[in-house]
Design a protein that fits this description.
The complex is a heterodimer of chains A (438) and B (249).
Chain A lengths: L2 H7 L1 H5 L8 H15 L15 H4 L15 H4 L11 E5 L2 E2 L12 E4 H6 L4 H7 L9 H8 L5 E5 L9 E7 L5 E4 L2 E6 L4 E10 L4 E12 L4 E8 L5 E11 L4 E8 L4 E10 L5 E10 L4 E10 L5 E10 L4 E10 L7 E10 L5 E10 L5 E9 L3 H9 L4 H17 L5 H14 L9
Parallel strand pairs in A: 1-5, 4-7, 5-8, 6-9, 7-9, 8-10, 9-11, 10-12, 11-13, 12-14, 13-15, 14-16, 15-17, 16-18, 17-19, 18-20
Antiparallel strand pairs in A: 1-2, 3-4
Chain B lengths: L1 E10 L2 E11 L4 E5 L6 H9 L5 E9 L2 E2 L5 H7 L1 E4 L6 E5 H15 L7 H14 L4 H4 L2 E2 L5 H15 L3 E5 L7 H14 L5 E6 L12 E6 L2 E6 L1 H10 L2 H7 L1
Parallel strand pairs in B: 3-10, 3-11, 6-9, 9-10
Antiparallel strand pairs in B: 1-2, 1-4, 4-5, 7-8, 11-12
Helix pairs in contact in B: 2-3, 3-6, 6-7
Classes of the chains: A alpha/beta (438), B alpha/beta (249).
């Protein structure tokens, strides 16, 4: 049986486990119908031209975790930022781990979607936000919606600003040889609130895990959200990350994506600007090697006047790795005085790596400032010579130049702890120990 | 210290150096002057091991060892330093971290331990004050947003830190105002002693008023056409190179 059929057939079994009377079940059923019609994307789809899921969906995966083996804190501690006291929502093979998590309902909700779905008091919030900005024509989003069951649920009320970042961690144990996970996250920052979120998907050992994750993020008026994605998984993991962000007036949302690992990663990142004076920031550093593949597929939808968007993605590719950047900026007719900036710079370390970069601008307003640029190049030889004349060996010199190339992306990372972590991940990825934190 | 014999080199099949001979002894300061395109900077790059330049003939000996085949970093570890005409910007890496890396990589290559932090800091402070560099400067990203003078001062600061046996200064004076020039020149003088050597490459005699050379060599069309003492530099400043061209032909 093809895996796609298995997904369709297994829905009945899935229904045994959930509350069919919950209003969102209609969303699930509609989404499944859409997925049945749409199927998995193929290379014929324009936005999947350079990324193929073919070999992935030919395999078979279990859809739920059978393991009851708990994960010890010491096995996963290193994946968290070291301030252990902050809020954490941790899933192990798709199942919420209260033991590893630290959640709250005190003054804000940092908990799990299954809890929110099961309680009456969340009904109106779910009705207002759940599945409201998920594009109907994206089959993987439909697939995720149809199997909505578990994920992070974060609601930051008006004026509340938690001090520490909230960490969302999806752990895959490898207790099953192959598993298909579909976390569904809902994040709402109400008026004048501010929150920082760090998200990570992590396998504990080599195994075939595919995560088709979907996150809806709502920034109400004047809300501030900084979202950081750390993609540094093992080389046997596949991640399809669908993140959809809706912003109301005066809000400011940034998403930083650090892609250093995984076999195949696809980031579908969409911003929808629903009011005036909005700031949207999309930044990324991608450092790949050994056949890794990362596809950044972004959309910024300027639907209202006087808003800004700023995109800056840096990529460094070696050893048969492949990068894709497909950045679309839509400026509606009403969205005058839009200021949209997009940049994608890439370095190919050797001859057998590849980058496909494609900016797409669709502008219907006549008084806007939109700029975009993409480059594909190599490390500057003169710069390399400079470092070598200082006694710095080739490998370390290349690492320093690579770091310098990507560095401006890190300037906007506000949490010092996180910045240090990213720096050390970069140093590790580049295989150097320079004797200081980059 | 440095002995160059009949050195020929080319870049992309274009010959640039056509038989350079040069001998620099311990404790000497040599200057190389010459018109644009004569091969001065090429010589500096070849001494440091730039891989774009292909040595087709001749040899370079440093401390009695032929170094033609050594990589730039190996030459640096042996004690060769090149001050760049256009230093490279490295955002995100501070001057301090950069120099620490450079020094410790050199020590590592000799099988030595890393320099203890306290010693490193002391040395940084000492050499920074020599070049009138303040501590804010040391925590800025390497060369990023530096003025021309700051970049050159930073080059000489690195030289002072690394204590090379041979320092090659490629147009260290170009683009400097007189105050910056004095600071840079003073830094070079303070670092030079009977155990090391300096090769100054310049367009202008001005620098040589401060770094007084023992020998001056004129390079034209890839060859040393005349050598002399500091008065030769003065003569060049006054009457240019044309008389040498005639002489040469």
């Amino acid at each position: 049986m093809k895996f796609q059929e298995k997904l369709l057939d297994s829905f009945i079994a899935f229904e045994q486990d959930i509350d069919l009377l919950n209003p969102i079940h209609t969303d699930r059923k509609d989404a499944l119908k859409r997925f049945e019609k749409q199927g998995f994307p193929s290379k014929k789809d324009e936005s999947w031209k350079y990324t193929s899921l073919k070999s992935i969906i030919q395999k078979n995966y279990s859809l739920s975790s059978k393991s009851d083996k708990s994960v010890e804190l010491r096995d996963v501690k290193k994946y968290f930022l070291n301030d252990l006291d902050s809020f954490k929502i941790v899933f192990v093979d798709g199942i919420y781990s209260p033991f590893l998590s630290k959640t709250t309902h005190d003054g804000m909700d940092i908990c799990v979607l299954s809890a929110a779905l099961s309680k009456d008091k969340y009904k109106s919030t779910l009705k207002k936000y759940f599945n409201q900005i998920v594009p109907k024509d994206e089959s993987l989003a439909s697939l995720n919606t149809s199997y909505t069951k578990e994920g992070a649920y974060i609601y930051i009320p008006k004026g509340v600003c938690p001090e520490d970042p909230v960490q969302i961690m999806h752990i895959s144990t490898g207790n099953q040889e192959s598993i298909w996970l579909q976390p569904r996250n809902l994040i709402i920052a109400d008026k004048n609130s501010k929150v920082e979120i760090i998200e990570r998907h992590q396998s504990l050992k080599d195994h075939s895990v595919v995560t088709n994750s979907l996150t809806e993020i709502y920034a109400e008026k004047n809300a501030f959200i900084d979202y950081y994605k750390i993609q540094n998984d093992l080389n046997t993991s596949t991640l399809i990350d669908n993140t959809f962000i809706s912003q109301q007036r005066d809000s400011n949302v940034s998403v930083h994506t650090f892609s250093f690992g995984g076999k195949l990663t696809r980031n579908n990142l969409n911003f929808y600007q629903k009011g005036e004076n909005i700031q949207s920031t999309l930044k990324g550093i991608t450092i790949l090697e050994s056949n890794q593949h990362v596809d950044h597929n972004t959309l910024v939808n300027h639907e209202q006047p006087n808003c800004e968007s700023h995109q800056d993605y840096k990529g460094i590719f070696s050893d048969r790795s492949v990068g894709v950047f497909n950045g679309k900026i839509m400026v509606k007719k009403i969205a005058q005085k839009t200021n949209a900036f997009q940049q994608n710079n890439n370095i190919l370390i050797d001859n057998n790596s590849k980058v496909n970069t494609k900016p797409q601008l669709e502008i219907f307003a006549d008084d806007v400032k939109c700029s975009h640029g993409c480059t594909v190049g190599q490390l500057d030889k003169e710069a390399l010579f400079y470092l070598k004349t200082r006694g710095i060996p080739e490998k370390e010199a290349k690492a320093l130049l690579t770091y310098a190339f990507a560095n401006n992306i890190l300037e906007s990372v506000k949490t010092p702890n996180l910045k240090r972590r990213i720096n050390s991940l970069i140093a590790k990825k580049l295989g150097v120990n320079l004797g200081f934190d980059l | 210290m440095l002995e160059i014999n009949n050195l020929h080199c080319q870049i992309e099949d274009k010959p640039i150096l056509k038989g350079i001979n040069l001998k620099i002894n311990k404790g000497e300061i040599h200057a190389i002057m010459g018109p644009n395109g004569s091969g001065k900077s090429t010589l500096a790059n070849v001494i440091s091991g730039h891989e774009d330049y292909e040595v087709t003939k001749g040899s370079i000996y440093f401390k009695d060892q032929e170094i033609n085949e050594l990589s730039p970093e190996e030459r640096a570890h042996e004690g060769v330093f090149l001050s760049f005409q256009y230093p490279v910007e490295i955002p995100g890496v501070t001057v301090t971290n950069f120099i620490k890396t450079a020094i410790n990589e050199s020590r590592k290559s000799k099988g030595q331990e890393e320099m203890p932090s306290s010693e490193m800091l002391k040395k940084i402070r000492e050499k920074a004050s020599l070049l009138e560099i303040d501590s804010n400067f040391l925590s800025r990203s390497l060369n990023q947003g530096f003025s021309g003078g700051e970049k050159k001062r930073n080059e000489i600061f690195q030289m002072a830190m690394m204590e090379p046996e041979l320092a090659v200064l490629d147009e260290t004076d170009s683009g400097l105002d007189i105050d910056a020039l004095k600071i840079v020149a003073n830094g070079v003088i303070k670092c030079s002693n009977e155990n090391n050597s300096v090769l100054v490459i310049t367009h202008y005699q001005r620098l040589l008023d401060y770094i007084v050379p023992d020998f001056v060599h004129i390079v034209m069309d890839g060859k040393v056409v005349m050598s002399g003492d500091k008065d030769l530099a003065k003569k060049i400043e006054e009457i240019g190179y044309d008389w040498l061209k005639k002489d040469n032909s």
